[in-house]
Amino acid sequence: MGSLSALVNGSPTAEVTIGRGLMQGDPLAPSLFLIAAEGLRLLMTRALDMNLFTGLHLGGESPPISLLQFADATLIIGEANMQNLWCLKAILRCFELISRMKINFHKSWVVGIHSGVDFIDLAASFLHCKVGQLPFKHLGLPHGANPRKLATWRPILDGLRKHLSFWKHRHLSIGGRVTLINSVLNAMPIHFLSFFKAPSTA
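RESULT FIELD:
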């Protein structure tokens, strides 16, 4: 445990003991979170190496996929069996004890793909989280959605219409509107189009 003091109007304050934890808005929070999240990856990798957890096999000699992380979004992927559930629960508990970070199970859910409803209900109860449905949104994309259906593209279309209707009420020149269209509207569907092929007809 260390301590620090700050200068206020040129005078040092009383020393403050440094503990653990991050405050919201802390500029170091993203970097420290990535370091902590690396610990979760190492725990998952060790479980895979010891055949305690079975991830998703894509075929061939490709390594199994068990963990996808981006910033504070985490996807854990594995076969639907009790061994995976016990292993996952142990990994998450170890991660909480080591990092002193609390997993928010109220914002976590279990989604089944080609697995029975009874097992998904059991898994959600076992892990104390919710049951999710396909499609679910992750990093702004609807996973499990059919890109050939108009409903998949409706959020993008609604967003474009919303921006256009808002700009109609602003006093913008033709050149200003063209600039907004090129800089904003053209960029909105790029994330979708990088993963999904747009249907030729609705």
